[in-house]
Design goal:
single chain, 0% strand, binds protoporphyrin IX containing FE, 3 helical TM bundles of succinate and fumarate reductases, mainly alpha
């Protein structure tokens, strides 16, 4: 077990774990979006999908444990790495500091900064999302006796939720458009021949996530009839 602690403590090890958990979470986003797209096929198709998902309890439990562990690891490593980068930058800044004390220290690179902000918005959205759909917190009365498709329709036609879900979907889109390319680079796809293609694929993936997920609250808000199952 010592090698594992050592690996996780090294910056290379942490980058690898971040990359693998990130790629796993991107895979989850594809599966989750595909499942949600069933709503466009119709209420019955979505309910069948939700029923199938819930009928295999062992599979669901394993998938949820893996999913939440991946989220926890990805977030914890992102926070510790950012803190370390900040401390290191502060140190090197002090070494080259001039007598002018009005000079502001740059926080991080713009990509790091974007990842931090979109990650925090995504986390805020996710907490809200789990409360809504897994725990049905605050929705007990309205969702009582409704089927899965109806529940989605009811939650997403709420204006506050529509706004939070659009914001969360766009934040996740921006986050993965950089995160996917970065993870591919970490696991070795950093050949000059492949990098431009990987970057384009990541951008397209980001757009699919942002537009795909936000389409549900947008349509629920502006075309509520589409969400009446
Ligand atoms: C905006 C459109 C979205 C809709 C309509 C939606 C819908 C749902 C629903 C209905 C569930 C409950 C599934 C069940 O029956 O157990 C769920 C769970 C979940 N969603 Fe979403 N979702 C959306 C976006 C997202 C996004 C952008 C993420 C980002 C990671 C996400 C992450 C999750 C997670 C982690 C769960 C819990 C999975 C589990 O524990 O089984 N969702 N979503």
């Amino acid at each position: 077990m010592n090698w594992l602690t050592g690996f996780l403590k090294s910056s290379v090890g942490r980058k690898f774990v971040m990359a693998f958990t990130g790629l796993f979470l991107c895979f989850f986003l594809v599966v989750h979006l595909a499942g949600n797209l069933m709503l466009y096929v119709g209420g019955e198709a979505y309910n069948n999908y939700a029923h199938k998902l819930h009928s295999n309890e062992e599979f669901l439990l394993i998938a949820e444990v893996l999913l939440f562990s991946a989220f926890a690891l990805n977030i914890a490593l992102a926070v510790t790495t950012t803190m370390e980068n900040l401390r290191a930058r502060k140190k090197s800044y002090k070494l080259v500091e001039t007598k002018r004390d009005d000079r502001a220290m740059p926080l991080t690179s713009s990509a790091d900064y974007t990842m931090m902000i979109t990650g925090m918005i995504g986390l805020f959205f996710l907490a809200w999302h789990i409360l809504d759909f897994k725990l049905e917190f605050g929705w007990e009365v309205l969702l009582e006796g409704q089927n899965s498709a109806q529940k989605v329709g009811i939650v997403l036609t709420n204006s506050t939720r529509a706004l939070i879900y659009i914001l969360g979907s766009v934040a996740f889109g921006i986050h993965v458009s950089h995160g996917l390319a970065s993870a591919c680079q970490t696991i070795g796809f950093n050949h000059p021949k492949y990098t431009p293609t990987v970057n384009i694929i990541s951008k397209i993936f980001g757009w699919i996530v942002a537009v795909g997920f936000s389409s549900f609250p947008i349509l629920a808000k502006f075309y509520p009839s589409l969400m009446t199952f």
